[in-house]
User: Fold this.
Amino acid sequence: MVELGKTLVLLALVGVLLLAGCTGIEGIGSSGSGAYDSGAKSVMPARSGANYESSYAPSPAAGSGVVQSQQLIKTASAQVEVPAGTLQERYAKFKNIILAEGGQITSADYSESDTTKGYNIAAKIPPAKFEELSQQLQTIGTVKEMSSSAEDVSQQYVDVQTRISNLQAQRAELLKLYERNGTLEDALAVENEINRVQTEIEMYQNQKLNMDRQIAMSSIYVRMYEQSPLVDRTVLEPLGQVANIFLGALGVAIIVIAGVLGFGIPVAIVLGILYVIYRKLRPKKGNAGKK
Assistant:
């Protein structure tokens, strides 16, 4: 009887896996995650009478609520020149527009060059306000460049939802199988399969969540800048040459003076000492006449 029970459990497990293959689970490897977390924490509680399906079974809408509507990820980029001296004012205005439309500024990096200074801005706005972007930017400054794109991810979105639904159905069947009487070895095998399926469910749920965020808020990248005053280099270059000549001459003079002082001071000291000795040794004129 034990061997018969074990055989029935194994046959049931094989049937569940075959059912999963027929419903498209075999396509999981093509999504870029062929490796599973072998060290994942077990999601199984004790087997004694617990209702596992209440925790892991799919909700009624999981299999029937697959979204068929068009799903778009919209992105835009633009370069906007503002009048000189108005950069900070125009940046503040742009920021207020984004916030008023229900969006947010995700980053704003300031930079300067010889000819321009400005902000590289990344922002998010609701898709409904996306089409108004060009008009809003024209109130900020002169739009030099602008491009936009809309990626249709409807099929990918439905595929992810379908895989989640199929995996949840597979998990529910495995949980039923786990509840049946069998050996400890059979129970561990089913538990490992349940953990693997749960890991894939979470992976696809994260993928769907990321798509939901990109669909819900469109991305905008704006380079807002103003022209910096140009410097006439034809004037600066001769001035630089004159400055270099002056500094060079000054350096030579300092070296000469230092050399002269370095040599002249000891000589002057020696001459002074010799002069004092000479004055001491030279006979006075009055004494010479008396003799």
